Amino acid sequence: MKKILALVLALCLLAAGICTAVAEDVTLVIAHIGPQTGPAAVYGLATYRGAKIAADLINAGSFGVKIELLNEDDTHDAEKAVNAYNNVLQNGAQMIVGTTTTAPCIAVGAQAYEERVFMLTPSASSTDVTADKDNVYQLCFTDPNQGAASAAVISEKKLGTKIAVIYNNADAYSTGIYQTFVQKAGELGLEIVSTSTFTDETTDYSVQVADAKNSGADLVFLPIYYTPASQILIAAKGMDYAPTFFGVDGMDGILTLENFDTSLAEGVMLLTPFVADAKDEATQNFVKIYQEQYNEIPNQFAADGFDCIYAMMYAALDAGIQTGEAPESVCEKMIAAMQQLHYTGLTGDMTWSANGEVDKVPTAMVIRDGVYVGLDN
Amino acid sequence: MIFLSNLVNGISLGSIYAIIALGYTMVYGIAKMLNFAHGDVIMVGAFITLCAAQYWNLPPFLAVLVAMLVCTVLGMTIEKLAYKPLRQATSLAVLITAIGMSYLLQNTALLIWGANPKIFPSLFSLDAIRLFDGQLIIKPETLITIVANIIIMVALTLFIARTKMGKAMRCVSEDRGAAELMGINVNSTISVTFAIGSALAAIAGLLLCSSYPMLQPTTGSMPGIKAFTAAVFGGIGSIPGAMIGGVLLGIIEILGKAYVSTELGDAIVFAVLIIVLLVRPTGLLGKPIREKV
């Protein structure tokens, strides 16, 4: 009799629990931190706008979850990012989507690790972001990942037989990709005929391009940002040199560079997880909303921000996070839930390893008539 | 052929250094101060040219004239506000002020034109010269830069040697106190020097950004430092010295990158500077100055 009573009681409690869950949505307070003024503003604005669209869609839907999105500008400065982090926690944030850029993310991550606050960064790609911190997760590829993936794509699609690499040896991002590229290229038997470097202060790229040309390279791998890449494309044109150029996610942005002759970028290939003219419904819907609200085509950072919010929402549902739950307990539950999560978003199919790195397949794109199209199309 | 092609690229880069170095050497030779803001005046000149050509749709020739005018006014204003009050101060104080001015200009440009780099449109619609079946390509910008360099160098040398103002400049350079006693207006002479130096900066800005078409607020700083090196290399204060120093520096940089290592390109440039200064402390064409005790 007692047992039955206990069972009935338990069932009642469970029913009550379900009832309250149905009756009232859980509210998650998520804070976005990223640069929205200053030189890196383009990235932080994009991740915030993407996250905002995701939060609006979730709030309009019936997931049983409402998102309250806080936002702080860190101007791509580590110190300001830590201040922003302290601010949002005081304002009731339960977890962080951010920070957008690497250096601030390392600083904020260290403090969040001490204080046990869960973070999912849309775009800070260095391995230092997640190293030795179980609470920081990445939604973008890590830098080394991109190098290996580029070599794999070049080998698989037979894009070039003689490869030249031009990279920025004063930049951790570029050097990191270069090293893993060389390693993977060696394993796959790709022939690298020319390797040259430049720094942030370089004005003249003629030597690097001439070296690639004179070594007979038919593919030039550029694990660099789009600004020096534009100069390399211009220098190559000046030498009547037209190999295949292959870039990574830093190449994203070359088409919107002011005054840049986009015909020079024709045929340039790049690895990027997101492409705005993809045919799937989710992407088209996102691009449409983004264009209506911000009057521009979203880049991969915006898609990363969007995916972050959805991934966090699903993980929070799995973990059973409650309204007003303290960040410390949210953190432990989210860490466990993220490792089980399988999420398909705008930037691909994603799962996460215990060290916080994402596992997803990059897509190779090629620029045709001034827009990205899939390499396979 | 590859060597020849590298040599052409070296001369192309070197002639840009030379034209910037002319501004440094001119101001140093006469006012005896290092105007570290010169590189940033070049950047301002390039931005003005870009705005004039693109937003106000002026023809290239007029756009450069507008930029020269703006830079002249800017240069004279900088001189009046920042350097003139320090005429009696130590040279170190002037140097620090010049560096401060450089940062002020960079950050003002950041406020006005933003941080996003812009591609400088090509204003010379000429075809490249292709020699030996297209193995050797000479860009029109290179030729224009070299010609502009020679014209400016000759004009400046004549101006300083032949005109009354030039004579006053030489006097101020030689002994400022004595020049003042002889009735030369030192302030207006230095002011004119800055005006000429800044007008040259506008031309240098156009040529720099035509050859290397990337424009952002920091564009002038590294070429400025290299050009300063070139001016010291050639003998600071000497106008033909700046020209020779600039071209040599460009050639050394490109050949060093091509035949030694791209990573060591800049290190080689500065190592050569050290060696030259050890052997000839006044630079290649510098006049040795005897210190009177």
Task: Jot down its keywords.
heterodimer, A: 377 residues, alpha/beta, Rossmann fold, seven-stranded mixed β-sheet, five-stranded parallel β-sheet, 45% helix, elongated, B: 293 residues, mainly alpha, two-stranded antiparallel sheet, two-stranded antiparallel ribbon, 3% strand, globular
How would you describe the overall organization of this protein?
The complex is a heterodimer of chains A (377) and B (293). By secondary structure, chain A is of the alpha/beta class. Chain A is built from 11 helices and 15 strands. In chain A, the strands form 3 sheets. Chain A has a 7-stranded mixed beta sheet, sandwiched between helices. A 5-stranded parallel beta sheet of chain A has the order 2-1-3-4-5. A 3-stranded antiparallel beta sheet of chain A has the order 11-12-13. In chain A, helix 3 (78-90) crosses helix 4 (102-115) and helix 10 (300-319) crosses helix 11. The longest helix of chain A has 22 residues, at 2-23. The radius of gyration of chain A is 23 Å and the shape is elongated. Chain B has 293 residues and is mainly alpha-helical. Chain B has a domain at 15-219. Helices cover 72% and strands 3% of the residues of chain B. Chains A and B meet through strand 7, helix 7 and helix 8 of A and helix 1, strand 1 and helix 10 of B.
CA-based gyration radius of chain B: 19 Å
Major interchain interface with per-chain residue totals:
A-B, 30 and 33 residues
Tell me the structural class of chain B: mainly alpha
Which residues of chain B form runs of ≥5 with pLDDT under 50? none
Q: What CATH first level of the largest domain in chain A would be assigned?
A: Alpha Beta
Q: Total number of β-strand segments of chain A?
A: 15
Helical coverage of chain B, percent range: over 70%
Q: Outline of chain B, from the CA principal axes?
A: globular
Helical stretch count of chain B? 11
CATH topology-level fold name of the largest domain in chain A: Rossmann fold
* Mean pLDDT over all positions of chain A: 86
User: What overall form of chain A do the CA principal axes indicate?
Assistant: elongated
Give the termini separation of chain B: 55 Å
Class inferred from helices and paired strands of chain A: alpha/beta
- Sheet-strand content of chain A, in percent, reads 15-25%
The average pLDDT of chain B is 86
Rg for CA atoms of chain A: 23 Å
Task: Tally the structural domains of chain A.
Answer: 2
Proportion in β-strands of chain B? under 5%
